[in-house]
Amino acid sequence: MSAGSAIDLPTWRHRHLLDVDRLTWPELETLMAVADRFATATADPATKLDVLRGVNVTILFYEASTRTRVSFEIAAKKLGADVVSVTATGSSVTKGESLIDTVRTLEATGTRMLVMRHATSGAPYLVPAIFGGNVINGGDGWHAHPTQALLDLYTLREALPAPVGSEAGSKAGPGAEAAWSLRGRKVAIVGDLLHSRVARSNLWTLTAAGADVWACGPSTLLRGFEAWAATGAGGRHFTATSDVDAAIRDADAVMTLRIQKERMAGGLLPSLREYAATYGITRERLRGAKPDVLVMHPGPMNEGVEIAPDVAEGPGSLITSQVHNGIAIRMAVLALLDAAGPVA
Amino acid sequence: MSAGSAIDLPTWRHRHLLDVDRLTWPELETLMAVADRFATATADPATKLDVLRGVNVTILFYEASTRTRVSFEIAAKKLGADVVSVTATGSSVTKGESLIDTVRTLEATGTRMLVMRHATSGAPYLVPAIFGGNVINGGDGWHAHPTQALLDLYTLREALPAPVGSEAGSKAGPGAEAAWSLRGRKVAIVGDLLHSRVARSNLWTLTAAGADVWACGPSTLLRGFEAWAATGAGGRHFTATSDVDAAIRDADAVMTLRIQKERMAGGLLPSLREYAATYGITRERLRGAKPDVLVMHPGPMNEGVEIAPDVAEGPGSLITSQVHNGIAIRMAVLALLDAAGPVA
Amino acid sequence: MSAGSAIDLPTWRHRHLLDVDRLTWPELETLMAVADRFATATADPATKLDVLRGVNVTILFYEASTRTRVSFEIAAKKLGADVVSVTATGSSVTKGESLIDTVRTLEATGTRMLVMRHATSGAPYLVPAIFGGNVINGGDGWHAHPTQALLDLYTLREALPAPVGSEAGSKAGPGAEAAWSLRGRKVAIVGDLLHSRVARSNLWTLTAAGADVWACGPSTLLRGFEAWAATGAGGRHFTATSDVDAAIRDADAVMTLRIQKERMAGGLLPSLREYAATYGITRERLRGAKPDVLVMHPGPMNEGVEIAPDVAEGPGSLITSQVHNGIAIRMAVLALLDAAGPVA
Fold first, then answer.
1. What is the ipTM of this complex?
2. Is B84 in CB contact (< 8 Å) with chain A?
3. Chain C residues touching B300 at Cβ < 8 A
4. pLDDT in tens, C92-111
5. Which of the residues A146, C123, C244, C284 could staple to A20 if both were Cys, CB 3.0 to 4.6 A apart?
């Protein structure tokens, strides 16, 4: 029943996962390889591992979430952890308890790994200074959503296993699978980049994988991205544009982002209808992309706004795979951080 | 500790439980017989079965609930399932995520059985088309609450084991217990039938069991029921009336329904006080029923409105048994649907 | 893995823990000794006991809470119980279901131990009459918070193990550890005593332990306490004063209480700033206390109001120990009440 002893984890030097920007490419490869092994080990849903046996994982979410919370909960339970879930509603958080005070309390009750989501960008960065365990950022404000970026990369690796230009088997020798990358691949990220922690984290991992990344949205929602592109993007392949057809042209993958209706109020967007007409990813618009273009969305979707229903459910859609792969990726993150130990 | 191997489940042809209207009488008998076996197998509360070992059951409730959610949670855990609970508050549902999107997400995280409650009548019927697992309706709008009707039937079977006219032991030969029915029994359902999913589901099962069912409430809250009675109720024994004394006269059981204060606003009810005076089930009013009349309520109760406290706690009250039996019935439902398999 | 058989529990005569006022000093000693054993038995976080195997513990909270709910949840799980959590939000409680109805429902679903928090003082006292299991008060209105008082006493016993005047080892013979008390110790409780269930419960246990207790706050927040002190406090060592320097002078421990901003509206407090200036526990103000004065807070804290951040995190702070010790104390409470049995 327990397969924990069969999982030998590689060395890992990070105690926390606050964002993906500090992960090197070899570390990203390691993480995905570990996720592969967990996916295999738990292919039978009845399997429970004991990798985190006796480890108290607390999921502390200050923002609404279904998929991320459930995904972490399942991942931690599959690893044999004891999981406690604390959400802002129904907790002392509504009494105005400070994040610091809450974290100290959770540590004193035995929490060793803390998965947290917070509306304030940067909030998880405050925690390691006062918490002896491991911190995993489950999304902070507009800033970062590292496990989303990791599962997106992992999903693209599964969907695009062969390097560009390779013919299956022709050039691959032993160990060639380690050479996976997105070099020569074009990935367009379309939508409200300004407010998107998903986009910010994905920029790091996708460009680290060698992809040619295009960020696309109304210019009001591209602030900062255009500037970064103009400075050369640290040598990465990165373009920011409001021209959706240019962004999608010959793309291997299109990542759509959620448009939040609340943004209308701020005058950043004209109307959902106009947004959908101009930037919504429809089958027609995708004709400019590669024939077998892949489509991604971090969810929850506004179908008919940023993505057409027939695209979301179409043959190139990876949306279900993204959610599914989130569990193996989060298992890998939890297991590696635990192996790195609570104290550096 | 595990008694799972001892439970051989009968064949079951339904993948979902959306309402009770598609269950034949033999199927209702089967379901209750399986519930009997689970009730016996878990008489020791420390017993855990492994019937649903490795099965991920998600309880997705878009409406407030204590008893139904807790009952499903306990039932699934007793069967050895992995249970995740998602409620509208604190989940992405507050971001306006669509039901369809949420269900797809849950399926991708590994959900194989989905118990759902939704304020919109018919919502669970949308799910099987996009979900590969089993769907159990935990209550949808005014429409249906199938497990409530099943546990009510099961509770009446326990309280009224002997057929009408039988003397205990006199006519019963081997296998006679299979002949249980409510033939010759009168059951009155009193209250706000119009808005009651409990009443709608109970109509099917009680009349399928052969009972003579009387629906009773102010005529504003009987719309549809009177029309159905007038057309002959498909050959079932069914009467709709606003005359509470006629409904209760010689009844074997009276099922009271919750009056929701919100209905006052719509002008459908005069006042709680007037409703209580006219339709509230008091000990006095019950004098017209059989001497040992049984009283039921699906909860939560407004004591002093639709039911008097001394009736709710009186000798004929089955209210506690209803809640208690809900666990065995829900275990039976979960186990049978799982045995029917996720794909037809 | 299971160490349950190693824990022999002493006889316990109480079926419920509604407040600490009915516990004798020997009972308090017993409870702390049992907590010691659970703390030792679960020093390895992977250890699970089976003391409450098959016991359904329901945590029913009608008020926001993080630490108390999580602490009870962890304590019950460490004892091997099946734990269900019901909070007011997302439950039928929002439909106006009565406490009595809810408790009856939970009992019928198999709940054997009920941990409850309620905004109404005295609410848990209504439950034993209609519930066959054990009731633990997790905080009721302004009235009582017995497990908080128990963990506070336990934390002081850990921090001040030697009786006053003893030199370590000099006078202690065999069994001397049983003679622990707070005789000769001064404990100041500073803050909003009027609204504090924590203070009310602590008064009993601290004075039962022999401490000289000083309650201190603005006179508007001392109502009742001054009167009790004036009548001689039932022979206990108790003083009520608005003079914070007198209260703190030579204190061995200072327990600070949360100031709730909501109280401002009622005119009971001038302003948070003025409160902080007059009664806030700062390092400067603590100079009047014993040099190694201990500082406690039940949380959640308003740092900078009732307690200065450097005091909360200072060398004498027991705040983290309080939270940590809450688990062993709650394990002891749950185990002892269960051993006392559901029926007297």
1. 0.73
2. yes
3. 92, 95-98, 101-102, 105
4. 555 556 788 889 889 998 99
5. A146
